[in-house]
Amino acid sequence: MKDYDIVKAARSELRFTSVDFIGLTVKDFTELHGDRLFGEDRAVIAGIGRIGDTAVTVIGIEKGKSTEERIEHNFGSAMPEGYRKALRLMKQAEKFQRPVICFVDTAGAYCGINAEERGQGRAIAECLAEMSDLKTPILSIVIGEGGSGGALALSHADRIWMLEDAYFSVVSPESCANILWKTPERADAAAEALGLTAARLYELGLIDRVVRCDEIPELEKRIAEQIRELQGLSVETLVSQRYRKFRKVGY
Amino acid sequence: MELKGLFLKANNELENTGNLLKSRRVICRKCAKPVSVARIRKNSFICPECGHYFQVRARRRILMLTDKRSFMEMDREMESRNILGFPGYEEKLSAAKEKSRETEGVICGEASIGGSRVCIFAMDGNFMMGSMGAVVGEKITRLFEYATDRHLPVIGVTVSGGARMQEGMVSLMQMSKISAAVKRHDNQGNLYIVLLTNPTTGGVDASFAMLGDITLAEPGARVGFAGPRVIEKTLNQKLPEGFQKAERVLECGFIDAIVPRQEQKEYLDRLLKLHGF
Q1: How far away is chain B from the Cα of A190, in angstroms, using its nearest Cα?
Q2: Partners of B223 in the β-ladder
Q3: Residues A207 and A201: beta-carbon distance below 8 Å
């Protein structure tokens, strides 16, 4: 499969979305709402539940399936209040020492007048800064689209996993081609150049695990094992390892 | 002597003035009036006719904000590599070096402001639009770590189009890396002041530009996450007057104060003194 085909597959409407992955891996999922500052953003679904024997906080960017659902979830593009809800619940997870699991699937943070004026940049920045210091394990799994800053905001984790047919990119291949070569037609060349596939990002040492599609049925078990391993570390070790993980990127 | 050299060779301070750069007068981009370069320079690179802010390169910016001869640069030798083998990146880097006469898009170091020791970084809009790659990320991260170890305040001057596409996810993750270093600096009770200049957008806006204890901006600076053309295209509508301009962003609650260029050094000096430096 060419890189651009992977991008297209990651965008497919037939794919599992965060709701499916939560259904598959989390028991007793109990959704919690609102950022306590402005509102409730349906592009981010979040709550608490159980993976294996462990109570966890789960956060997923949700695209929805039917047209109605897609509109409700804003096609998986979160507003600042979505990121602030996520951060509120991550801080809550820290308080109750629950590990955090993030399912990432977004073309990007919403870009619009209201999103800008409510501080999209600040909302993402706060996620990055606060997650870097969160005193509880964080696992982020990119299940479809990892669209730039909007996906990165929920990926400041101890471990980043990606499905083998997901992508994570600084920019969409279409925008990249448009900016560099003035034509979206060359998106396939851009996709190739950006190195956005799970396999390539693993090779570059930027993600920790490529999850094969045939492993999905046992994902709960894999997540539970990963959580257990991270819970075995002292909080100091956990946080300093997380710092080093990002500290070494690119240098 | 030094200033004169910078101006003549760099030919980028007034880069929006077309081919009149080498003459003694330039046409202001905003008011379209011919203005003497000497007058613009004396006026902190603001058009004396209409108040338009010309772009200021990073090195000059630092000179403008810090005490004379106090700046000591750090990590100047660091240069970008084509990590992904991205087509055309080497050529872009060469062109950026030539245009900016810098080795990368940010200058970092230690200096004093009103006698107080500070760490300072300034991004350079002439280096691939101030885009953030691994070297920019590494230099700023090192500066924050240096400042954290010594309990020094950090002053950051931002101008950027965001993460540098040619470095793919490595560049995007510089947002995470720098934000974590800012957080460590913050945890130790240290001061971080940001000065947002035109434009500060994308991944820089969504990370260290928005994490200051105190956030200042130049008048009229564009500050935002998504580029205006992207938003217009997405929404299929014209954007309102003043959208993403510093004045509007202040109204929205994301900037502490807008500080004219001539007053910035004094303003920083006062803030530092109020924090006991």
Answers
A1: 9
A2: B200
A3: yes
B173 reaches A (C-beta below 8 A): yes
Q: Looking at the complex, does the CB of residue B208 fall below 8 Å from at least one CB of chain A?
A: yes
For B238-254, letters b (16+ CB in 10 Å) and e give eeeeebbbbebbbeeeb
ipTM of the complex: 0.97
Q: CATH number for the domain including A41?
A: 3.90.226.10
Instruction: Say if A78 falls within a structural domain.
Output: yes
* Chain A CB contacts of B86 below 8 Å: 193-194
CA dist B127 → A90, A250, B12 (Å): 37, 19, 10
Cα(B140)–Cα(B255) distance, integer angstroms: 21
> For every one of its 251 residues, what pLDDT tens digit does chain A have, with 9 covering 90 and above?
899 999 999 999 999 999 999 999 999 999 999 999 999 999 999 999 999 999 999 999 999 999 999 999 999 999 999 999 999 999 999 999 999 999 999 999 999 999 999 999 999 999 999 999 999 999 999 999 999 999 999 999 999 999 999 999 999 999 999 988 988 889 999 999 999 999 999 999 999 999 999 999 999 999 999 999 999 999 999 999 999 999 999 98
Determine, yes or no, domain membership for A248.
no
For chain A, say whether B244 makes contact (Cβ under 8 Å): yes
Alpha carbon distance B38, B29 (integer Å): 17
Class of domain B56-274: alpha beta
Q: Which of B138, B224, B239 sits opposite A121 (nearest CB)?
A: B224
Cβ distance B225 to A195 less than 8 Å, yes or no, reads: no
What are the C-alpha distances in Å from B126 to residues B12, B120, B138? 7, 19, 19
CA B247 to chain centre: 18
Do A213 and A24 touch, CB atoms closer than 8 A? no
Q: Residues 105 to 124 of B: which have CB under 8 A from any A CB? A: none
CB within 8 Å: B243 and A155: no
Q: Which residues contact A122 (CB under 8 A, 6 or more apart)?
A: A80, B206, B210, B254
- Host domain of residue A53: 3-57+64-165+176-213
- Asked if B169 and A125 come within 8 Å (Cβ–Cβ), the reply is no
